[in-house]
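seq:
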Amino acid sequence: MLLDYRNYDALGLAQLIKNKDISATELLQTAIAQAEQENPRINAIITKLYDHGQQQIDQGLPEGHFSGVPFLLKDLLGSLEGTPMANGSAAYKGSISPSDSEMVSRYKSSGLVIFGKTNTPEFGLMGVTEPKAFGPTRNPWNLNHTPGGSSGGSAAAISAGIVPMASGGDGGGSIRIPAACCGLFGLKPSRGRTPTGPYFTELWDGAAAEHVLTRSVRDSAAMLDIVSGPDASSPYPVPKESGYLECLNTPVRPLKIAYSVQSFFDRPVTQDAIKAVGESVKLLESLGHHCEAVQPYINADDLTESYLTMYYGHVAADLEFAAKLLNTNFSNLDVEDTTKLMGYIGKRISAERFVTAKRRWNDFSQSMNALHQEYDLLLTPTLGSEPVPIGEFDLGFLDKIGTKLVNAFGLHNLLLKTGMTKKLALENLEKLPFTQLANLTGQPAMSVPLYWTESGLPLGSQFMAPMGDEKTLFQLAHQLEQAQPWFDRTPNKELDRTPANTQENSQS
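struct:
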C-alpha cells in the first residue's frame, strides 16, 4: 500500500476505508512509515503522536468525510488536549494543551486521525520555517530552499507524501505562501468563516484565519464545509455556510479577472513571478475567462505601516502573555533575539498609532470593493520570487550583534528613529509582497499551483475574491485543476539538492 498511498487525496483515502479496502490502523501505519522515511530529510514533523492516533482509532472514530484519514496539526494554535504545543519557541517547550481548540474539535469530528504536529517559525511570525528551537524545515522540491511559512511544516509534509492534507493558519499569507512554495492548493477563508475559540475572540485583530493545505481542491472544499461557522468566541454573527464541496459540481461561469504583477509594497519582483501570472492568464483565457491588467489603488506606505503596526503589537502582546503564563518576565523569555526585538518595538507603539493603523484597513477594503464592482477576482503572483534558499532571511553577523545590543541596553527607540526596522521588514516583504492585503481586508484568497520555475521550484498564483465568495474560488480552482492537473506532479528525489551538511540535517 505504501507505493500507492500518494495516489489518493484525503477523500480518496476515506473512501478506501469505507469500502473496507484498508483499515484505519493500516492506513495510519502507512502514514507513519512514510513519515519515518521522509521526515529526516525535511524536518516537517516536530512532535510524533503515533500512539495518540492509534488511540483515536481504538476508541472509535466519528463517521465523517475523512474518517480514518491520517492528519497533521500545525504546532501553532492547534491545541490538542494532553499534547505538547511549543508555538515554534523554546519558551513553550514542555507546555501541554489543557483542551482542544474549537478548530481541532471540528477536525476530529470529521474522523481525522491526528498523529503528529508540524514545524512552524517562532509564534508563526515569518514567511519561512526556520525556528531556532526546532531547526529549519526543507522544501521537498529542493532541500536547500524553504517550504515557506508559517505553515511550512504542514506544506512540506504534504509535498513529501506523508499526508494529503494538514492544518495551517494564515495571518499574512501563512497558508498561501507555503502552498505556493510546495506546489499545493491553499485557501485562506474570509474573516470570521472559521472559528477561533475558545482561547481567542479573533486572531491578529481578524487578520488571521485557520484552514488546511491540500493536494486536491475538493479536500479543501470538503474541510471548509466541516469547520466553517461561528463558535462561542466569535465576535460577530457569521452565518454558517456549506455546500463548498457540492459547488464543485457546478461549472464556474466565465469570469472577468483583473491581474497585476506590481508589488503592493512597491518593491521589485522577479521575472519568475511575472511569468507565473502570464502563464496563468493564458490558461484562464483559453478556458473562456476575460483577463485585464490593472493596478489596484493600494497606498504602499499605508499598507506597510498598517501591517507592521498590527504585527509588532501582537508580538508584544503574545510575549507578555507568555511571560505571565510561564511565571517569568518579558526580558527573560527564552525566545529568539529578533522576536524579542519585535516585541520591544511593539511595546513602544502607542494606542493611538495602533488604532490609526487599524482604521486604514477600511481604506484597503474600499479600494478592493471598488475593484470588485468591475472584476470578479484579482490575480497576482503568490510570491515575489521563487522559494528562497534556507537562511535567506537570517540576520548578518553585525545585525545579530546589533540586535543583541539593542535588546540588552534598551535602544529600541533609537532603532525606530533610524528607520532600520522598517528597512529590514521591507527587505523580507520584498519576497512576499502579495498576500498580506487579503488578511487586512478579510477577503478569501487562494494560491493555485500553476507554474514551476526553470530550476524546478513551484511558484503559485494567487486569486482574491470579494468577501464571502469562497465558492467562486473553489469552482475556478477546480476548473484549473482539471485543465492543468498538478496532483501527480510531485518532487523528484533524484533532482533534490542535498544540503552540504546532510548528517546534521538528518538529526534535526
